[in-house]
Design goal:
Helices cover 49% and strands 11% of the residues. It is of the alpha/beta class. The strands form three sheets. It has a seven-stranded parallel β-sheet, sandwiched between helices. A two-stranded parallel ribbon has the order 7-9. The protein has a two-stranded parallel ribbon with strand order 8-11.
Length: 428
C-alpha cells in the first residue's frame, strides 16, 4: 500500500511513517519547509499546508496513493503557523483532491472534545476540518486523540518531562483532567484502520484508561525518572496568565512553546472521552501511563533532556538580552568607557566609530538569535563576534586578561554557552 502522511515530521507522523515502513508499506512523507534529516529524500514531499489551499496543489502527489493520513496540526496562530489554513482550508483542499484522485481511505487527526466545545481557534478550526471531510465521498475515519504521550520528547511529552525535573512543581490553575493516550496505541490504531476490511465513516475518541490531573501525570514521570515526589504550590492566576502571554510572544518570534493562551483555553476544558467505541472498532486495549513508562526504562538522555527543558528558554531569553543590552549600553551610558578602552592603542583615532560598529553588531546578533528562523545564524554570528573581541582585545589591550573583573576572560564561558545553545536549538 502507498500511504501519504502529512505532518510527517511531527510526533505522530514521524512514528507512524517508521511503523508503516517496517510493515512493508511505501510512504510518501509530506513535510513543511526543508526535509528533516533522516527521512528518505526520494519519498519526501515539501508542502506547507497553510499555502496548499487548492486541490490542484495536492493532486500531483496523490497519483497512485492508496490512503492518506493527515497528521498536520499547529497549536496557535503565529509568525510561522496559521490554524485556520492548516486545519480547515488546507485540509479541505487535501480532502477534495483525495476525492478527485480516487484515494481509497483518508484518516484524519482532529482533537478530543472539539465537537463538544471550541474554546479557541485551534479547536474551532479542527472541527471545521472534520466537517469538511465528512462532506466528501470518501472512506474516512476521524481520530480525536487526547494528549498524546510517547518516548519521543515533543510537545506535551517534552513538557511533562521538563516539569518532572523541577524541584518545586507549579500547579497551573484552571486545568481539567487528562486521559493521556500512548503514542504506540495511536499509531497501532492507524495501522488497523488502514486495512481494507476495517470500518470507515466513523469518528473515534482516543483516550487513556484513567483521568489524571496534570500534577498526577508529572508525578508518574518523576517516579519513572527515579526522583521523589516534588513539592507542589499553586501558581497565582496572574502569573500563569503572564507565562502564557510570554509563550504567545515566543510564538510571534517563530518558536513553538507548548505553553500559550490556546493551550490554556484547551487544557481548562480537559481532555477526556469515551474509550469503548475505539476498543470495539479496533480491538486495541489502551495502555495506562504507568504501564507504558514501566515498559520503557529511562536513560541518562531522558534525565538530561528533562533537566535542560526549562534551561533552554532561559538561554534564549538571556542571550538576546545580553547582546542587545550590551549594544544599547555601549551607545549610551557606557559610551565613554568603550572609547577609553581604545585610547593609547593603534585604533585610538577610530575609537568612536569602532564603539558604534561594535554596538550595532551586538544588537544585530541579539536580534537574530531571538528570531527563530535566524537563531542558528545569530548564534554563529555571536561566536564569531566573541572570537573577534578576544583576538582584537589580546592584540590591542592584552592587559585586560589580567583585570579583576575579567572582561576578556568572560568571553570563554560566553562561547561555551553559545555552543550549548546550538546543541539544543532543534525542536524536533
Amino acid at each position: 500500500m502507498i500511504v501519504l502522511v502529512t505532518g510527517a515530521s511531527g510526533l505522530i507522523g514521524a512514528t507512524l511513517c517508521a511503523r508503516l515502513v517496517v510493515e512493508g508499506h511505501d510512504v510518501v512523507r509530506v513535510v513543511r519547509g526543508r526535509a528533516p534529516n533522516g527521512l528518505s529524500k526520494e519519498r519526501t514531499v515539501v508542502i506547507d499546508m497553510a499555502k496548499a489551499l487548492e486541490p490542484e496543489d495536492w493532486l500531483p502527489h496523490l497519483v497512485g496513493v492508496d490512503a492518506v493520513v493527515n497528521c498536520a496540526g499547529v497549536l496557535q496562530d503565529s509568525a510561522r503557523e496559521n490554524t485556520g489554513k492548516v486545519h480547515a482550508v488546507g485540509a479541505s483542499a487535501l480532502f477534495a483532491a483525495c476525492e478527485r484522485a480516487g484515494v481509497g481511505r483518508v484518516i484524519h487527526f482532529s482533537a478530543i472534545g472539539v465537537d463538544r466545545e471550541q474554546p479557541s481557534a485551534f479547536s474551532a478550526s479542527k472541527l471545521a476540518g472534520d466537517r469538511a471531510l465528512m462532506e466528501r465521498n470518501l472512506d474516512w475515519v476521524i481520530l480525536r486523540p487526547s494528549v498524546v504521550l510517547g518516548r519521543p520528547a515533543f510537545g506535551a511529552s517534552a513538557l511533562f518531562r521538563g516539569l518532572a525535573a523541577l524541584p518545586l512543581l507549579p500547579t497551573m490553575p484552571g486545568t481539567g483532567r487528562l486521559q493521556v493516550v500512548q503514542l504506540d496505541d495511536v499509531v497501532s490504531t492507524v495501522l488497523t484502520l488502514l486495512s481494507k476490511d476495517s470500518p470507515s465513516r466513523l469518528t473515534l475518541e482516543l483516550a487513556g484508561p484513567e483521568a489524571l490531573t496534570m500534577s498526577e501525570v508529572v508525578a508518574r514521570y518523576r517516579e519513572w525518572l527515579g526522583w521523589g515526589r516534588a513539592k507542589e504550590f499553586v501558581l497565582p492566576g496572574w502569573i500563569a496568565a503572564m507565562l502564557y502571554r510570554f509563550g504567545d510572544l515566543a510564538g510571534l518570534l517563530g518558536w513553538r512553546p507548548p505553553m500559550r493562551t490556546n493551550a490554556a483555553k484547551e487544557i481548562a476544558r480537559g481532555a477526556t472521552g469515551a474509550l469503548e467505541p475505539w476498543k470495539l472498532a479496533t480491538g486495541i486495549q489502551p495502555s495506562s501511563l504507568a504501564s507504558a513508562l514501566a515498559a520503557s526504562p529511562p536513560t541518562v538522555q531522558e534525565r538530561w533532556f528533562a533537566g535542560l527543558y526549562f534551561v533552554k528558554p532561559a538561554i534564549f531569553v538571556v542571550l538576546p538580552f545580553f547582546w542587545i543590552a550590551t549594544g544599547i549600553i555601549s551607545l549610551t551610558t557606557g559610551w565613554r568607557s568603550g572609547v577609553e578602552l581604545l585610547l593609547g592603542t593603534a585604533f585610538e583615532a577610530l575609537a568612536g566609530p569602532a564603539v558604534v560598529a561594535g554596538a550595532l553588531a551586538d544588537m544585530v546578533v541579539g536580534t537574530t538569535i531571538a528570531w527563530r528562523p535566524t537563531s542558528r545564524a545569530g548564534l554563529w554570528g555571536a561566536i564569531a563576534v566573541s572570537c573577534f573581541y578576544a583576538i582584537a582585545g589580546s592584540i590591542l589591550r592584552p592587559d585586560l586578561w589580567n583585570e579583576p573583573l575579567g572582561p576578556l576572560m568572560k568571553i570563554l564561558p560566553i562561547l561555551v554557552l553559545h555552543f550549548c545553545a546550538l546543541a539544543i536549538l532543534e525542536e524536533r
